Amino acid sequence: MDNVIDLEKQFQEKIDRDQSIEARDWMPDDYRKHLVRQISQHAHSEIIGMQPEGNWLSRAPGLRAKLILLAKIQDEAGHGLYLYSAAETLGVSREEMLDALRTGKAKYSSIFNYPTLTWADMGAVGWLVDGAAIVNQVALQRTSYGPYARAMVRICKEESFHQRQGYEIMAHLAKGTTEQKEMAQDALNRWWWPSIMMFGPHDADSPNTGNAVKWKIKRESNDTLRQRFIDKTIHQADIIGLTIPDKDLKWDETTKHYKYGEINWEEFNNVVKGNGPCNKQRLEQYNKAFEEGAWVREAAEAYAVKKAKKQQQEIAA
Ligand code: FAQ
């Protein structure tokens, strides 16, 4: 039997050849742990991310807007489910992951701890938050762990629809009345910086990047992805006549990228530690929904037991 050193060598060679790692393949414990951490945090983000938008379902202006928003929120639930399933293939149970979320042990994206104050926030969330999520997730379609990479393909297609939904709302408001344009600009002002924080700390301050790059979990670094998002979003803002709230934004002819201002990492760390504007509210709402949904889980379990028994009786007969 191969020893661990040989297995690790073969594992890394496989990664270096760009072959994906599948659930039954041998993998180092740290690779497994790294993936469980990232995929479960990603899943939690999708699930908690439904709340800021759910807040606007009953107030969306008109049936069309309501239907689209509802479909988007349902998609986010689906993304959470694909991701929990991908994490389960690594040997962690759904209960363990949900327990970590409920008790506040697990992280989820900082972005979902900000409030959605106006209808324009639905535009800003779709345009900026989904926009940032896609930039990150397109790279993850080529992540080394097969089940995670495959989940990303469908998620990216849906996120792309979400980004357009948000941009459409912003474009519509930006060419509306003075008040509507102000509302759109105000939403952009509040969501811009939290959106660029979604990519995580600068590369030099990102403890997980080393292994993530070595194992090709991350194909591109936090800063590379953040820069890509900034470069493309500035043009989108220009087209609809809104202004990115960063006085230091400047085109750099040498790098062919925009330079941007200082990110407020103190705010980011504060939100990640649980002290953002809505952290407490998000967890409370999740826990309340979890408790109220206990009867659904019990009923589903009772039905599964009944069905299995019936199948056994049919086989025995
Ligand atoms: N928020 O060493 P790194 C969406 C933590 S999906 C909170 O750089 P890493 C769809 C990080 O976990 C959005 N914590 O970490 C949607 C680590 O702590 P740990 C979610 C953050 O993993 C739209 C520590 O800081 N997307 O929006 C954040 O290499 C609309 C050090 O950081 C994903 O999860 C943050 N923003 O890079 C849904 C994508 N950033 O775990 C509804 C997958 C960092 O060691 C509505 N994840 N931290 O205790 C990733 O690509 C990576 O995990 C990063 C972070 C890039 C997020």
Please outline the helices and strands.
Blueprint: H1 4-16, H2 29-48, H3 50-54, H4 63-88, H5 94-102, H6 119-140, H7 146-174, H8 178-197, H9 209-214, H10 222-239, E1 250-252, E2 257-259, H11 265-275, H12 279-292, H13 294-316
Antiparallel strand pairs: 1-2
Bound molecules: Phenylacetyl coenzyme A.
User: Regions with pLDDT < 50 over 5+ consecutive residues?
Assistant: none
Measured on Cα atoms, how large is the radius of gyration?
22 Å
Q: Number of helix segments? A: 13
The major β-sheet equals:
2 strands, antiparallel
Q: Beta-strand level of the residues, as a percent range? A: under 5%
Mean pLDDT: 97
- Structural category is mainly alpha
Strand order of the largest sheet: 1-2
Count every beta strand, where a strand is a DSSP E run of 2 or more residues: 2
Helix content: 55-70%
Distance between the termini: 45 Å
Give the cofactors and ligands: Phenylacetyl coenzyme A
Order of helices and strands: HHHHHHHHHHEEHHH
The coarse overall form would be globular
